[in-house]
Fold this sequence. Notes:
This protein is an alpha/beta fold. It is built from 7 helices and 10 strands.
Amino acid sequence: xxxxxxxxxxxxxxxxxxxxxxxxxxxxxxxxxxxxxxxxxxxxxxxxxxxxxxxxxxxxxxxxxxxxxxxxxxxxxxxxxxxxxxxxxxxxxxxxxxxxxxxxxxxxxxxxxxxxxxxxxxxxxxxxxxxxxxxxxxxxxxxxxxxxxxxxxxxxxxxxxxxxxxxxxxxxxxxxxxxxxxxxxxxxxxxxxxxxxxxxxxxxxxxxxxxxxxxxxxxxxxxxxxxxxxxxxxxxxxxxxxxxxxxxxxxxxxxxxxxxxxxxxxxxxxxxxxxxxxxxxxxxxxxx
Length: 288
């Protein structure tokens, strides 16, 4: 956002209680919405607003909206944008932007899984607002600030170099932050062509690549890497939210598939599986 000079505003009601939510699905929805808002906004910025209204003693309605000051979306295209594999540039502005709408299709599917709704309001030339509405959200009895519920804190160090490839900057930042928890050295690229240049400069141990990218897809990038004998030791991991890829022959060449929503445990598993044995440190906090 800084490179584009955009602002980010976050508005949250002061009395928001602790809620019992599917945090992985919610996080993936917000990552997708924020990533798209930033990508399709050149001037102004992005606002996130959260509100909660109790509808019972222990439940309520949670609303989260992501508003941008971008190009907006034509009325006829506002439902199409949620269809899988519909290019967002086809419904926004193909002269300026490129990318796929898979993230929005997945986001709506995740919202459905949470018994919620993902809706869109947009005015061409003014911007768009995506709103996630979750009904009957349970209020947690846990006291705010309590450390009773914690993630597994056991960690491992993987002193290897990983190249991340994704055309959505937000996705790169999220994966980068998660990989650094394992002491991984991370380099990023926003296209397949840029990734090949980065590999030419310094061959990584692994490449984590998005599948649906403009210009050069993740599968095409894999083919380019496999065609170079000097890169034969590079492990290539596909990163996708498409749960149907497992049976796709085009995916057979990947060393692993990282399915979204991404978790630290999924990343740990892949790093352990693909890293050279002499680079894997014991997990801190675990016996062995």
